[in-house]
């Protein structure tokens, strides 16, 4: 039996894809049409499934004003930190990120004790920056991992925000760190490469616009982060970097909440990532940039010199 209801906030073709995937979750329902201009959604389903199907579509962010108010920050925190099975994938991402962060800390300490003893000012200068680098890498990997499960389930506007936010945060954090230890040239290159790569990859969920947003954000943040560190070398730069990293991590958390508000929680059947995957990526990236910070080419004026 064909029935119709009105969906809201339909802005682009990706909205139709989200609704199609939602209807496909009901075995006895078939999507007939989605009119983006009027919001009319026509489905062929049983009477008993219709209201549940409509509610599922609304929960994806296409409901009327005020619908889905249960998707509050408090609801999300309780779901992730509690025993709610619906948030099992988000809970695993948090656990994997914290576990890999502790592992990176341990590896950095071992490297400092065994291989970097002869490096001048390693513990007072490099150690705090390496601590911040581990935090930035873990938070960026967690955000990218979360976004990877919604590559085809976001609207164009949200996809552009994903590319811009991840490209900006990752590029700014890394550019600021490498700029402080290696100077403007190396810091800008490192921040640009990482920011543009992650931003473009994360923003590709909404096509070329998302990719462009990620590229532009990585380009600007990588150079700005390195420039800011070089300009503040004679200022109390470490407290500023702590505030900067805390702000970037908070922005990434806000991005994850925004995606949850639109697309809901991660479907359990699509989560196939293990702790070893996250830990391996975190360790490889951390060690690579640790070697760059300690032994890479440096400008005439850098921190600790």
Describe this structure in words.
With 305 residues, the protein is mostly helical. It has two domains: 2-62, 2-Layer Sandwich (Alpha-Beta Plaits); 73-295, no CATH class. The protein has ten helices and three strands. The protein has helices at 13-24, 47-62, 73-81, 88-114, 122-148, 156-182, 184-203, 208-231, 237-263, 275-295, and strands at residues 2-6, 30-34, 40-44. Strands 1-3-2 form a three-stranded antiparallel β-sheet, with helices on one face. A hairpin with a 5-residue loop joins strand 2 and strand 3. Helix 6 (156-182) runs antiparallel to helix 7, helix 6 packs antiparallel against helix 9 and helix 7 (184-203) runs antiparallel to helix 8. The longest helix has 27 residues, at 88-114. The radius of gyration is 22 Å and the shape is elongated.
Determine Rg (CA atoms, Å).
Answer: 22 Å
Q: How many H/I helices? A: 10
Low-confidence sequence ranges = none
Termini separation = 76 Å
Shape: elongated
How would a crystallographer describe the biggest sheet?
3 strands, antiparallel
Q: What is the strand arrangement across the widest sheet?
A: 1-3-2
Which properties best describe this structure?
305 residues, Alpha-Beta Plaits, 3 strands, 69% helix
Quick summary:
The chain is mainly α. It is built from ten helices and three strands; from the N terminus they run E-H-E-E-H-H-H-H-H-H-H-H-H.
């Amino acid at each position: 039996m064909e029935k119709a209801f009105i969906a809201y906030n339909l802005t682009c073709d990706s909205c139709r894809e989200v609704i199609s995937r939602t209807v496909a979750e009901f075995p006895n329902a078939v999507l007939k049409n989605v009119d983006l201009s009027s919001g009319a959604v026509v489905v062929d389903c049983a009477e008993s499934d219709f209201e549940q199907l409509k509610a599922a579509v609304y929960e994806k962010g296409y409901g009327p004003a005020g619908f889905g108010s249960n998707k509050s920050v408090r609801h999300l925190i309780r779901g992730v930190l509690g025993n709610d099975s619906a948030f099992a994938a988000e809970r695993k991402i948090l656990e994997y990120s914290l576990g890999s962060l502790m592992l990176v800390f341990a590896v950095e300490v071992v490297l400092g004790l065994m291989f970097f003893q002869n490096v001048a000012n390693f513990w007072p200068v490099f150690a705090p920056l390496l601590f911040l680098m581990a935090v930035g890498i873990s938070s960026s990997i967690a955000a990218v991992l979360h976004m990877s499960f919604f590559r085809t389930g976001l609207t164009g506007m949200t996809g552009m925000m994903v590319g811009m936010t991840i490209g900006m945060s990752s590029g700014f954090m890394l550019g600021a760190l490498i700029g402080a230890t290696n100077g403007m040239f190396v810091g800008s290159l490192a921040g640009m490469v990482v920011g543009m790569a992650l931003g473009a990859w994360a923003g590709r969920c909404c096509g070329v616009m998302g990719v462009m947003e990620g590229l532009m954000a990585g380009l600007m943040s990588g150079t700005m982060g390195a420039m800011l560190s070089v300009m503040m070398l004679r200022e109390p730069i470490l407290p500023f970097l702590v505030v900067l990293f805390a702000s970037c991590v908070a922005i990434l958390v806000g991005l994850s909440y925004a995606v949850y508000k639109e697309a809901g929680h991660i479907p359990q059947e699509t989560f196939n990532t293990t702790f070893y995957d996250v830990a391996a990526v975190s360790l490889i990236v951390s060690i690579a940039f640790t070697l760059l910070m300690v032994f890479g080419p440096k400008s005439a004026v850098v921190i600790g010199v």
